[in-house]
Amino acid sequence: MLDSHGMLSCKSPRRAHRKPLRRIACGVAIALVGALCLPNEASSGDQMQPKSVKQLADYQLTDKQYRCHNSIIYRESRFNINAVNGSHYGYYQGNSRALKNAPIDYQFWWYWRYVSIRYGVTRYDEPNYCVALHHLISKGWQ
Questions:
Q1: How far is CA 124 from the centre of its chain?
Q2: Phi, psi of 59 (to 5 degrees)
Q3: Within 10 Å of residue 54's Cβ, how many Cβ atoms?
Q4: Is the pTM of this model over 0.85?
Q5: What does the pLDDT average to over 60-76?
Q6: What are the structural domain ranges in the chain?
Q7: Which of 79, 74, 80, 90 is nearest to 137 (CA)?
Q8: What angle do CA 68, 140, 108 make, to 5 degrees?
Q9: Given its phi and psi angles, is residue 16 left (phi above 0), alpha (psi -120 to 50 degrees) or beta?
């Protein structure tokens, strides 16, 4: 309940006889109300945007796949999000106009799906970027 100054207090309407239990219950109630009243960044609709494709990949991939992923991007676009080569766009030089001027996370997830379908996934359910890199090198494309 709120007192006349707007402060949260806990008073038992029945005046419980066991004061230690009442204090614990009051403390828990105040903590719950306080936690529920605090702003929740995850539900505010303002989600954290990745600062770089490396940051996003580091969060999503194992170390081995991370290194292969970054090697692909370096070979394809030198980490230039706006790279264009004919009809190929973005970090990964994908053949899709949707990648032209697309944000980091869109390009990342587009390529995630592409590599997963074309080259398979690892035992950790991540795209097998190392197989994709091997394919890229073996064809002499980069």
A1: 17
A2: -75, -30
A3: 15
A4: no
A5: 97
A6: 1-38, 53-138
A7: 74
A8: 35
A9: beta
